[in-house]
Amino acid sequence: MTLAARTAVPPSLSYELYPPANAQAEAAVLRAIEELGGTHPDYVSVTYSGTPERRRASIQLIEHLVGATRLRPLAHLTCVGETRDSLELLVCQFVGLGVRGVLAMRGDLPADAQACRGDLPFARYLVELIRRVEGRHSATLAGGRMAIGVAAYPNRHPESPSFEHDIEVLVSKERSGADFAISQVYFDPAHYVRLVAAARAAGVTIPIIPGVIPMSSVRRLERLAVMTGVRPDPALLHRLETASSDAERRRIGVAAAAELARAALDAGAPGLHLYTFNDARASVEVVEALDLPSTRTLSASVSA
Ligand code: FAD
Q1: Where does ligand 1 bind, in terms of residues with CB under 6 Å?
Q2: Where is the signal peptide (predicted)?
Q3: pTM listed for this prediction
Q4: What is the pLDDT of residues 131-142, one digit of tens each?
Q5: What is the torsional sign of CA 109, 72, 17, 45?
Q6: Is 174 a catalytic residue?
């Protein structure tokens, strides 16, 4: 392959969906899948939570993606509160369903300090478990590997003593067998650049894909801050608070996300991951605003 051909590879494109909790939400996610499919994403990630109902809903959504669409699922998996055995069973189930990519995370700790934290204290051990389990499925995988992604943090993880510690954790995830990382949300383009620079300086070589969120709701932005510990951009918050209509808030959210994504891509990001909150329209508008290279369509269909 010539250098020219290699550098022509377009950035990857992916979306995060969460499993629906009721029939109305299910209809919405099916519509979202159809709309997102039109942009030829490289994969669609499906969030995970350990409660039995949410887990079932995640698996059903994955089954739908594999069985009824041409979209490839990236199954999120968290190890908090889980035994080694239950995780191994789940990974086997994923392989059997046709899943070839897992986003391996620890998950948020339960608020109840007495609650069971599970057999694996950190995400890197889940990465190692998936690598071990895939060895048992080498016939199904034709000797190939699962693609394993991990979480990376442009801003300090709430439990971490420092940003530098987070970078060491990312190094350990790569050494455990991770193939790529997706970033937590962030609102300042410099934070993604800082994450990548620090990771590279520490020896991380895997792609680090920026995670961007089209944010058009003040309430959701505040909830996100509580969930992730990432402070919302005060200027964006102000613009959303003073917007005169939902339509204007939506325009503001899409424009801010497109700006953040453009800055990351201009800085050399290998792809873009959009947190959709199952609102496909806003994410598709971000992609349209970016006018990603037209070779994407070809690359997505070839790799599918
Ligand atoms: P880890 O890498 O295990 O890190 C957790 C904490 O432990 C960090 O503070 C880290 O600094 C510290 N740590 C790690 N290793 C060590 C060590 N050896 N010694 C000391 N300290 C250590 N959550 C869900 O529940 N479901 C989802 O579907 C989901 N999807 C996500 C998708 C993305 C792209 C991202 C970025 C996050 C997602 N999360 C999800 C949230 C994630 O589970 C939380 O951020 C969680 O708190 C940490 O997960 P982790 O995999 O980064 O954990």
Answers
A1: 47-49, 76, 78, 103, 105-108, 122-123, 151, 157, 159-160, 165-166, 169, 182, 184, 211
A2: none
A3: 0.94
A4: 999 999 999 998
A5: positive
A6: no
